[in-house]
Every structure is written in structure tokens, then in C-alpha cells.
Amino acid sequence: MFLTYLRRELTNRRKQTAVIAIGMALAIALVVIVSSIAGGVQAAQSSVLQSVYGVGTDITVTKTETPSSTNGGRPSFDFGDQGSSGSGSTDLSQSRLAVARGTSTLTTADVATVTATDGVAAATGVLTLEDSTFSGSVQQGGSDSGGTSTESGTSDGTSTEQGPPSGGTGGGGFGGGSFSVDSFTVTGIPVTGDTVGPLTSTEVTKGRAFTEADAGKDVVVLDAAYAKSESKTVGDTVSIGGKDFSVIGIVSSTGSASTTGSNTYVPLDTAQALADLDGKVTSVYVSASSSSDVATIKTALQKQLSSATVSTESDLASSVSGSLSTASTLVSNLGTWLSVVVLAAAFLIAILFTISGVTRRTREFGTLKAIGWSNGRITRQVAGESLVQGLIGGVIGTAVGLLGILVVNVIAPTISASASASTGTGPGAGRMPDGAATAAAGSGTAGNVPAGGFGGGGSTASTTDVVLHAPVTVEVVLLAIGLAVLGGLVAGALGGWRASRLRPAEALRSVA
Q: How would you write 195-234 as a 3-class SS string?
């Protein structure tokens, strides 16, 4: 009886059913699309961070320099006596391998402390270095130019400075000249035991990965983009810190980021010996036993390593900027509120049409009550009709939403992602762990010049393009159906309550 009456009423009131279903469908479709795009933005942010920190990295521990431990953060180059080229000029060249400015080091004891902390499944210490080569030549002459110099950039991004060195006075001093700075990042990775960090989110495209036998050897694995830009392949050599390293492999990011977290990777002990930093690391990557332990581990590490900076992935995600950040803000704010407003409007339409329908059916409900229908039975009948109307709208809305997601994935919009951070040398300077500034491009340089220049502070930034993919999940579909059911139940409950208050006398009065 219930189903027969339900089918008849829905058939007889096609216009009302269509209006309620369409309104609900539009709201549900918008919710599905916004929820899916929000998931895609979060996945893109995680991919950008994983290109640096690696899959499974929940926490990073780093340490910034204090003013007393650095000469203003300015790298120094000691040229000593340089030979003349024989044409009235002097060639100058010097390489420097050191930790990036604004960064201090941790010890192996700190790594052991992190490993022993409750809830930590694995911890890996890595050493991130910057290899900078300063080279050029100056002309010998008697110019009284007063030491004025000009700086320009070449087409390949190399920084070039022309003019006599600062403080030149002419008169037998140096004349004009040009200088260039070439820089790339070097990351020392443990080659033994379970590791957490940058290489866990990469795949070998050529050659091989590190093995335990590579410990202490002069071997290097290159980022695929860096290898292409430098025309390097497996079997070639790369100069790092004045020594030749043999290329044994080339890796690329497994995420949507186009590059990995560093230009080059070498065994940790080799990097420590080359930079004269035995037993030192710049970052500790931590994997928690459970995601629920991350906050507790962070608190514990902050107490045990008070001078270090402890950051979770959620902390670092806030530093991702560019159009990816804009998309995240748009989805989180405008998209969410728009979904709420449209959904509320759909619910209101369903409620108003249901109550309006009940009012027009005064004679019908009054007659049903006169022949013995209870208030509960009438309420269930109205609620059942509204629930079916909501489900129809939910199914249509889900289908439209999935179609919208398909369109987004076919178009595959590309958004830029930048990871930037302050590298000030003061206490508590907020900065991301080493390499975080290269979260997207995987390079510690901008146009072959060390990021941030040679000043004593500033910021580092690099940008890459990430393809936005809107995933379809069971949770999104269940959310859509759940909202449709909720809308139908709310409208049906109010409509049923209104119908149950009608009296049989009103039906007799209406008939008369």
C-alpha cells in the first residue's frame, strides 16, 4: 500500500518532483566537484613536499645558524696567488662546498636521540651541501675608476660582474673584469639500513641506486632534470668539491613534481669527509609508527632538541605558494562556502515545495485521517515521498559531479607550486628544512646563482608545474548520497509534521 501510494503521488506530481530533484542535483554536483578538487590540491601539495622529504616522512628536524656562528651568512672565497693569463689579465677561480647559508648542523647523537623517541619508526640523517664555483678574470691596468663595478646576467643564468674589485683605486691596480658563479646542491644519503627521505620518492631511470658497497666511494646519483641540463649520463664524471665523482644512476620524482629534492646525491660518509663535517647532518627525516603519534613525537623532540626546529608535513604545507596555494585558498574558502550556500538553498527549496504540496493536499490528508490513517502513517508517507525525491536528485547530482571531475582530469590544468622560506640567520628564524626551498625544482640555485645571493639573509624559492588531478573516492560518493538523504529527510519531516496537524473537519469543510 505504501509503495503503491508513493509511486502514484510522485507520478501525479512530476513538476514538484522535478524541481526538488534538480535543485538537489545541482547542489550535490557542486559538493562532489569541490570535494574532489580539494583532494586533488592536497595531493598536489603532498607531492611537492614528497619530492623533497620523501614518501613516509612525517617530521623533519633541522637547525638554523645563529649570528655568532656565521660571518653574516656570507660565503668566503680565498683565491691566494693566481697566475696571469699573459694578456694583461689575471684568472681567478675557486670552489666551495659547504652547508647552505642560514643552516647549521646536527650531530649523529641528535639522530640517535630522535631514533630512540617513542613512536618513531625510522629516522635518517642527511647532509645537504651547496657546491659553488666562483670564476673569472680581471684586467690589469691603471684606470682610476674608483672601484665601481656593474653586475649583469647572461642568457644561461650565470651571474656576471664587470669592473674592478670593490675598493680598487686604479694606478697599477686591476681594470675591468667578469666573474661567474655556478652552484648546485649535493645531498649526502646513508647507503646502509632503512632510510627515510628524498630518495624514497624517486625511481631509477638509468643505471642503479646506491648499495652498501658504495659507502665511502666517490659515486653520485643525479636528478634527471639536472642530468639533462648538464648533458650527463651514467658513466660520466661530475666534479664535486674539487673531486671527480662517477655517475652510477639517474633518478626522477615519482610524484607530480618535475624534479627531486636535490641536484646530486652521494653517500653520506663521502659527503661528510669532503666537506670536513664528520659526524654531522643538516636534517633528520622521521617516520612515525602511526599518524596519530605525529603531534606527540613533535612535542617530545622539541623538548629533547630545544635548539632545533621540528616541523611536520602540515607545517611545511603552509609554505607551498604559487597558483597551487591560490587554488587551495579558493577551494577552501570560496568553494566550501559556495557549496554550503547552494546546499542550503537546495534544502530550503525542498522544504518549501514539500510544505506547499502538503497544503494543497489538505482535502486528501483530511480524508485519509477520516478513514483511519494515523498521524504517524501520514508523516511516513510524506517523508517517504521527499526521501525519494532527494535520492533522485542525489543520483543525478552525483552523475553530473563525476562528469565534471572527468572534464577536469581530461583538461588536466597545470598549476605552479613554489616552496619558499626565510633563511635569516637570527634565532628562531622561520625556515623550512634544507632543500625545502627546492621542493619543486629540486635545485638550490636560481639561474646557477645560489638562492638568495651572498647576503646574510633573505629567502629562497623555486617553482615547478604540477598537474592537478581530481580523484574520485568512495568517501565523496557517500557524502553526496548522504547529503541527498539528509535533504529528503529534513523536507519530509517538516512536511509530514505539517500534514499530521491537519484535521478531518478541514477536509469536510473543503468538500462542502
A: CCCHHHHEEEEEECCCCHHHCCCCEEEEEHHHHHHCCCCC
Instruction: Report how many helices (DSSP H) and strands (DSSP E) the chain contains, helices first.
Output: 13, 22
Q: Are 363 and 504 in contact (CB under 8 A)?
A: no
Q: Which of 283, 108, 71 shows the shortest CA–CA distance to 198? A: 283
Classify 250 as helix, strand or coil: strand
Residues, the chain: 512
Amino acid letter for position 179: F
CB 424 within 8 A of CB 460: no
Q: Give the strand pairing for 463-467 and 414-419.
A: antiparallel
pLDDT in tens, 10-25: 777 778 778 888 888 8
Q: Which three cell numbers stand for residue 504?
A: 478531518
- Furthest CA-CA distance within the chain: 121
Query: Hunting for cell 512530476 — which residue is that?
Result: 14
Q: pLDDT tens-digit profile of 81-106?
A: 555 555 566 666 677 888 887 788 99
The continuous run of DSSP H or E covering 265 comes out as: strand 264-267
Confidence (pLDDT) at 277? 92
By DSSP bridging, strand 174-189 and strand 264-267 are parallel
Q: Name the one residue in this structure whose C-alpha cell is 547552494.
A: 342
CA–CA gap between residue 231 and residue 116 (Å, rounded):
43
* CA triple 233-234-237, angle to 5 deg: 80
Q: Which residues, 6 or more positions from 363, have their beta carbon under 8 angstroms from its beta carbon?
A: 507, 510, 511
CA dihedral (225, 231, 236, 238) in degrees, to 10, reads -70
Element (H, E) at 59: strand 59-62
pLDDT tens for 45-84 read 666 666 556 666 788 888 876 554 444 445 555 555 555 5
> What are the percentages of helix, strand and coil residues in the chain, rounded to 5?
45, 25, 30
Work out the burial of residue 460: count CB atoms within 10 Å of its CB; fewer than 13 is exposed, 13-18 middle, 19 or more buried: buried
Query: Taking each helix axis from N to C terminus, what angle separates 474-500 and 336-360, rounded to the nearest 10 degrees?
Result: 30
Q: 3-state SS string over 6-47?
A: HHHHHHHCHHHHHHHHHHHHHHHHHHHHHHHHHHHHHHHHHH
User: In this structure, are residues 402 and 479 in contact, taking their beta carbons and an 8 Å threshold?
Assistant: no
- Please tell me the distance from the alpha carbon of residue 408 to that of residue 78, in angstroms, as a whole number: 55
